[in-house]
Design goal:
Elements lengths: L7 H9 L4 H14 L3 H11 L3 H8 L16 E11 L5 E7 L2 E9 L5 H14 L8 E7 L2 E7 L5 H12 L1
Antiparallel strand pairs: 1-2, 2-3, 3-5, 4-5
């Protein structure tokens, strides 16, 4: 897996945790999500090595998962003062961090928005995650009466992109 996902130092670090498989898996996961196209490269490596069971777990949106990842607490934060945008039903998007990666955090009021709608949005995000033109989904966390969807932070808003694009085409 030294084809862009892991360097030799990463592999050595993972090997030192061989006696602690939970910590090793956590470090592996945190390394993957911090790498550009890390998830896509992992999926390709699993396909090449015919790891169909692991591949199915990572890519099948029908596999039930808990909404929240309890191991995300220490690596995740967001700034409520840094609002990127607002949506319907009190949804707000903030700037945040997942490890060292800058992310967008979509905060949804779970007591206002139906849980089925939230789960469906997550399924759609996961199913489109491999497409280069769709915002990357990283994780989700439940916090008090909110659901926090952790997403790729884009360089600009859609409105800014459309405005900039029209400047180039005229």
């Amino acid at each position: 897996m030294s084809d862009g996902i892991f360097g030799l130092n990463d592999i050595e670090d993972l090997n030192t945790l061989a006696c602690a498989p939970f910590e090793q898996a956590r470090k592996f996961y945190n390394t993957i999500i911090k790498r550009e196209h890390g998830f896509l490269k992992l999926v390709e490596a699993l396909k090449e090595t015919k790891q169909s069971g692991a591949l199915k777990l990572l890519t099948d949106t029908r596999v039930p998962r808990k909404l929240s990842d309890p191991h995300l607490n220490d690596a995740f934060s967001y700034d409520e003062k840094s609002v990127i945008g607002r949506g319907s039903n009190g949804t707000v998007v903030f700037r945040g961090k997942l490890g060292e990666r800058k992310v967008a955090v979509k905060r949804i009021h779970s007591n206002i928005v139906n849980e089925k709608i939230i789960i469906e949005e997550i399924k759609v995000l996961k199913s489109c995650d491999a497409h280069e033109n769709v915002v990357r989904y990283f994780n989700i966390k439940e916090y008090q009466q909110h659901v926090l969807i952790i997403l790729e932070l884009c360089d600009m808003t859609l409105k800014e992109w459309v405005t900039n694009k029209s400047n180039f085409t005229s």
